[in-house]
Amino acid sequence: xxxxxxxxxxxxxxPGTGAGxxxxxxxxxxxxxxxxxxxxxxxxxxxxxxxxxxxRDNSGNLGLIGRxxxxxxxxxxxxxxxxxxxxxxxxxxxxxxxxxxxxxxGEPEGSQMYRNIRTVSYPVVEKNGIIFAFMGEGEPPAFPAxxxxxxxxxxxxxxxxxxxxxxxxxxxxxIDPAHASFLHRFLQDEDPNEGYGKQFRDKAxxxxxxxxxxxxxxxxxxxxxxxxxxxxxxxxxxxxxxGRSHVRVTNQIFPETICIPMSNEMTxxxxxxxxxxxxxxxxxxxxxxxxxxxxxxxxxxxxKEHRLPDYAxxxxxxxNYGYNPDEQESLTYTGMGLDINVHDQWAxxxxxxxxxxxxxxxxxxxxxxxxxxxxLLAAIKSVEKGELxxxxxxxxxxxxxxxxxxxxxxxxxxDEWEEVxxxxxxxxxxxxxxxxxx
Length: 438
Prior knowledge:
Elements (H helix, E strand, L loop, with lengths): L3 H8 L6 H6 L4 E5 L9 E6 L2 E7 L5 E5 L13 E3 L2 E3 L6 E2 L5 E3 L20 E4 L2 E4 L11 E2 H4 L5 E8 L3 H6 L38 H7 L4 E6 L3 E9 L4 E10 L3 E7 L2 E11 L2 E10 L6 H9 L2 E2 L4 E2 L11 H6 L9 H10 L17 H19 L17 E2 L3 E6 L3 H14 L8
Parallel strand pairs: 11-21
Antiparallel strand pairs: 1-10, 2-3, 3-4, 5-6, 6-7, 7-8, 9-10, 12-18, 13-14, 14-15, 15-16, 15-22, 16-17, 17-18, 19-20
């Protein structure tokens, strides 16, 4: 358990908060690139508790500026997109992509007042279907050469979804390897379908054993956590009969991202981005090491489970996540369908919008969660002191040279588990046309 003060310190993200200051040192997903594919590419963005507007100007340049006009506070999401900027419909004040006011057409002739008017603005960049924003001070950091960024656009599909809970509890489900044997348990072993739930319904690596069976029969993983230059590596060992073990390698990329294997040919890199203290979006990049992804099919699959324009899931607490007691009896552990994303959503939202960690009791399998919280608390103290070099990916070395991270499932001899997953990862990369060795 932790104190209420610590819980709020880790959870709150607005300007002037501890965790918010840490998150502002890293690039944050602000929107999907597809949200700006329209005749009027202007969308509202609420990020880390700040109300903003994202747009492309007439020349195609991206801008992310304050949503409230500095004049009288009206909503610039309804601004006129003209003259390479946004013009407020109230009095015609015009702002460029840097947030600078460049014209006040209603003011007296010759007025220079506009030169002193500027709204907040943040640098933005597009990477493989996601538009990232940097909300900190000074020069933005470099991007590491993670697979989701290094892969060609043809091999990456990006999507997002809204969760009604705090960002940290959303992220922590991804660094909890033990939950997969229960929350994502399937009571029948079948051929994987084409849906997202395939992650735990495929065959275990190099075997004919369904992952569903493996997770059911070996529910007590041995979990090892290693500190890395990007965050944490989590290794879950499920020791099987016959001296073999299943090795699952997942990663926490500091401060709010996970990278996990979806199949033998695909990984998911997923950010958990605070809208405010009680709501977040997950942004995911599905990265293929095999053939190019069929983005139309993948988007169609996801849109069957989400509504536009806010990407909110159709299954939610208002309809009990589609819970069916008959299904829970015979097909899935949750009774909430085959989409494991819904399972995770229920788990993190049912804690409440902001989890009360003063009442929780962590076990030995929660080692990744404990280690990450300690690292986040240390990062908060470092930022308060101005010691950014103490943050992951801010220290010594070339950030742009950080690759991977390796995320894979493998099965081999128990006493050779370390070589087993490294060899499996090397084989996958060797067979990939675009991937560089780790």
